[in-house]
Fold:
Amino acid sequence: MTTLTQPEITLTAAAAARVAAIASKQAKPAILRLLVEGGGCSGFQYKFGLAEGPEADDTIAETDGVRLVVDAISLDLVRGAEVDFVDSLAGQAFKVQNPNAASGCGCGTSFSV
Structure:
């Protein structure tokens, strides 16, 4: 498990606040897991979920007491990214601003490298 002082991935204050609210309602720790899986319309897709705790190979970024955990394989695909929470006319969602993505789909949940 690696905890970074200058994280290779960041969690915005808006995303941290949303995770804290969801975790509070579900009586779970305020830990958001970002996982990258094969699939989606562009080759890879982002998956989000609350985690009970970090795993041994996770990298951890923390904002306002909320932790974002990313496994080593997923981190290779999202290194340098920012995880944000947006509330727009299109809906509410966690969004990843990924500098490694060569292209993405219109909904923002899948990407290619």
Summary: Residues 63 and 112 are 27 Å apart (CA to CA). The two ends are 26 Å apart (CA to CA). Helices lie at 13-25, 72-78.
